[in-house]
Amino acid sequence: MYKRLPITFWATLFVTVVCVSLLASDAWRSWNAREVLLADTERAATNLARAMAQQADDTIKAADTSLADVVERLEADGHAPAALERLHRVMTSQVANLPQLNGLYAYDEAGRWLVNSRPVLETRFNNADREYFKYHRANPGRGPYIGVPVISRSTGKWVLPVSRRVNHADGSFAGVALATIDVEYLKRFQQSLDIGRHGAVILVSNGGTTLLRRPFSPELMGRDLRDSPLYQAYMQGKAGSGIWRSTLDGEVRLNSFRALENYPLFVSAALSKDEVLEHWRRDTFLHTLGVGMLAVLLGFFGQRLVRQIHLRLQAEQELLQARDALESLNRQLEKMALQDGLTGLANRRQFDVTLGNEFSRAVRQGSELAFIMIDVDYFKQYNDLQGHSAGDDCLRALSRSIRMQTPKRPGDLAARYGGEEIGVLLPNTDAEGARAVAERIRAAVEALQIPHPGSLFQVVTVSAGVAALKPQRGVDQASALIEAADRALYAAKSAGRNRIGSAA
Predict the structure, then answer these.
(1) How far is CA 336 from its chain centroid?
(2) C-beta atoms surrounding 492 within 10 Å
(3) How far, in Å, CA of 220 to CA of 197, rounded?
(4) DSSP 198-219
(5) pLDDT tens digits along 492-502
(6) Which of 89, 247, 284, 363 is least surrounded by Cβ atoms within 10 Å, i.e. has the fewest?
(7) Measured between alpha carbons, how far is 313 from 7 in angstroms, rounded to an integer?
(8) 3-state secondary structure at position 37
(9) Dihedral of the alpha carbons of 73, 75, 77, 83, in degrees to the nearest 10
(10) Whole-angstrom Cα distance, residue 188 to residue 214?
(11) What does the DSSP assignment read for 373-438?
């Protein structure tokens, strides 16, 4: 039958809905602002990466163009003094016109300096040990090679080497032409980019080698990044974005990477996630604080309103209290009717009702139901030797111990089954769990150390039979569980008492 809800319920519901709506709308606004901010940051990082890629490509392209001219002159004009002098003038002019170039150099097949763009030719150096020289000597390719940044032997500056192989007329190795890009030139461009206090930009080779990074650190030059999330993402696609923790400094950043168009390098612009969200967090905190205070005030006044309504209903509730007290008394009387007067445990009537209810519940839920049948060993002899009054005291002491060891879950029940037999009903329990409970009960009773001259153990002990089953509708009966536990109890007694028997 439909029951009309009290006005206090609707008033409380209204106030609650308003407060929750305020908080939910503020949370949605804050989260949406966060997503928009991250999307804008991703676009900004993408634009930075595009600009960096274009600048790096143009810088290397200019150096490589000069380098190709040097290679063509060396292969066409040879190494005659007059030809080298003309080449020296060309190199000097090109370096003067290209601010990114630190110098142009040419080496013979042994690594000796042939000519360079410096005013005076240095002959005391040999570059056969440089990584780029070894590369061209071992590889016949004629394309440009971009090596790992090194400190120039002639200027002492950090330079990025771009080199090409020089061949003899028969195609054999004749040396290397080298253009060195001033790292400071690249650094000045990176410094001009607004990446915040904790952002980073990086130039990396396709092989995963760090060529230049801001913030700059000499220890990071040539660092292997192949195990980093950035490099793994780059190998999946030549342009993209992601949020990763840096393997270099541990900062979580929003990264955007892009490959250079003409050279085997890629760049990445990374903006600190914490720094990007710093203003958002502050704004969200203040806004949420204001909305939260408004919700608290609304809840306070709403509570006062509900209380006033409640006071109007109080008179009616006081009238109902007498009825409730009477019903409570009736329940207590019913409980007493279901309790064994001697032991304080549930009586047989309550046990039968509970067994039927839990058996039906186990059928519906497909769960296991366990039962422990407990019997006092040599109890007849105890009564004969100590008297029935002492026997009653003994049962009361055992019952208290059993009740303490019985789990306190809903449905768990310890009941006096009859005479000195006590049953423990355990819903949602398998045979192993029930046996563990039975063993605790047996040990607790033995630990009472109640003297029993008529027992082989000289103290009062109990034996128990354990049975458990997962009842099926129309197949199993509640009595089957009791009978199985009773058989297990008989087996325990036959085996010598003071032990636990389990149903097969």
Answers:
(1) 53
(2) 26
(3) 19
(4) S-EEEEEETTSBEEEEES--GG
(5) 999 999 999 99
(6) 89
(7) 10
(8) helix
(9) 60
(10) 10
(11) EEEETTHHHHHHHH-HHHHHHHHHHHHHHHHHHS--STT-EEEEEETTEEEEEEET--HHHHHHHH
